[in-house]
Specification:
17 strands, alpha/beta, about 450 residues
């Protein structure tokens, strides 16, 4: 082994042991060379090796810093990830990131690192957040004919916690929650923890069917309905205005509450959004609107939002507090700053372009297959050709180092039950998790697998 590699191993060991921590600045290469009794050229090779391993990052004019650890992706939506499986391309998790995003966010954090400001952000924040956060987030949610009252905004640590708080406020243990027959998997786990029964509701090409909602409520009263009117995950369906009007009227007629999940709606674009008012604008007295900054910015430093009608805000705030789901003051201040200084707008515009470009790749590489997606979204629903089943397709893809999510992760209820979707021979393909240069390879590989048979995909 070369000398520079042995020295790099020593520095790597210090990083792994925590003696050098993320953000620590390394000595200059000249000082490093003197300290180790090596030539300057050898020190240069050491620093290049550390960067190649992803352990350090150089900043022009500032020096070389220990890089934050790159954690492996979390478990799949359906089942815990197989620890023996080595995933090369993750088309399962869907947290979009665009070039330059981290640098933009870092600039916005600078003001929070002053001791006086940092001290203020270390306090516990109430569910009502802060004035600047309420005003900034009300502006974020506003549409052409929709101007939410900042006083109605409540804050959670992220979008998932916002959903949990909204459901806990509306549905008692043992209560019934209507959901689209294919729904966001987290709602299934939240309902199980809250002791809530999920009732699958039929959908069509326009989204949730109001007649299915009415029929289910007549059969046994529902406490609420959870719905994704815009860029439904996983189908990508967006309700047209007429369906939204009908659904709002149904909520009023039944005296039923809706939890409207708008987490992915930012991708739709301003022109399309302006023509599609949220349920919270059409039936504000019957709707809790849930959103977050997790997909717009990042899942690691984010906030979740619940817009509640004034008469119900205290109940939702109590649910957020009792669940331990309120946002931290630091995250609230960071979010307000990013919203006010234009960072969120800049990142969102970049993600809209990125999602559209990835959808074009998807269309080109999966041409000829039954793929359902919105050209603005970061995901697609792929109905597999026979004789493939989702489980065998997942296993074949995993052998090529590619992870996708089985359709069963989104299905609610048993096959044959009222409104329930049959066990789907489909997968959701998430487009945000793969590097741009890896996505064509992954899609081509999946297409080649699908064109074969399960027997062809068996290992020799």
């Amino acid at each position: 082994m070369e000398d520079y590699q042995r020295i790099a191993d020593t520095v790597a060991a210090d990083i792994a042991a925590g003696r050098l921590r993320p953000g620590d600045r390394l000595a200059t290469q000249r000082a490093f060379a003197r300290a180790h009794g090596i030539a300057n050229s050898t020190a240069t090779r050491v620093y290049r090796e550390l960067a190649r391993r992803g352990l350090t990052v150089g900043e022009v004019g500032r020096g070389t810093y220990v890089r934050a650890a790159q954690h492996a992706p979390g478990p799949a939506l359906a089942e815990p990830a197989d620890p023996a499986r080595r995933t090369r391309v993750n088309l399962e998790l869907n947290y979009p990131e665009v070039p330059g995003q981290a640098a933009l966010l870092a600039r916005g954090l600078t003001r929070l690192l002053r001791p006086d400001v940092l001290s203020a952000t270390m306090a516990v924040a109430p569910a009502t957040g802060t004035g600047p956060a309420r005003d900034a987030c009300a502006a974020l949610l506003a549409r052409a004919d929709f101007r939410p009252d900042p006083a109605g905004l409540l804050f959670a640590g992220n979008g998932r916690q916002a959903i949990a708080g909204a459901l806990a406020a509306l549905v008692p243990p043992g209560g019934r929650l209507g959901v689209e027959a294919l729904t966001y998997p987290l709602v299934k786990s939240v309902a199980a923890r809250l002791g809530v029964t999920l009732v699958p509701l039929a959908t069509d090409a326009y989204g949730l069917r109001p007649d299915a909602l009415r029929a289910a409520h007549r059969g046994a009263p529902l406490s609420a309905v959870y719905v994704q009117p815009t860029l439904h995950n996983p189908l990508g369906v967006t309700m047209p205005a007429e369906r939204r009007d009908e659904l709002a009227g149904t909520l009023r007629a039944l005296g039923l509450w809706a939890v409207e999940d708008a987490v992915w709606s930012f991708l739709l674009g301003d022109a399309r959004s302006a023509a599609l008012p949220p349920l919270a604008a059409l039936a504000p007295e019957r709707t809790l609107l849930v959103d977050s900054l997790s997909k717009r910015l990042s899942p690691g430093l984010t906030i979740g939002l619940v817009l509640a009608p004034p008469a119900h805000a205290d109940r939702v705030a109590a649910a957020l507090r009792s669940g331990g789901w309120t946002a931290g003051a630091f995250a609230l201040n960071a979010a307000a700053g990013w919203l006010l200084d234009g960072t969120v707008t800049t990142v969102v515009e970049a993600k809209r372009r990125d999602a559209a470009a990835r959808q074009e790749l998807l269309s080109a590489h999966l041409e000829g297959f039954r793929v359902q997606a919105d050209p603005a979204s970061y995901f697609a629903w792929w109905e597999l050709p026979g004789p493939w089943r989702a489980e065998t397709f997942l296993a074949a893809a995993a052998r090529h180092g590619i992870a996708v999510t089985p359709g069963a992760a989104f299905a609610v209820g048993q096959e044959g039950a009222h409104g329930a979707a049959p066990a789907p021979h489909a997968v959701r393909v998430a487009l945000a998790g793969a590097a741009a240069d890896e996505l064509p390879y992954a899609l081509d590989t999946l297409a080649a697998i699908a064109r074969g048979t399960p027997e062809d995909a068996q290992p020799d």
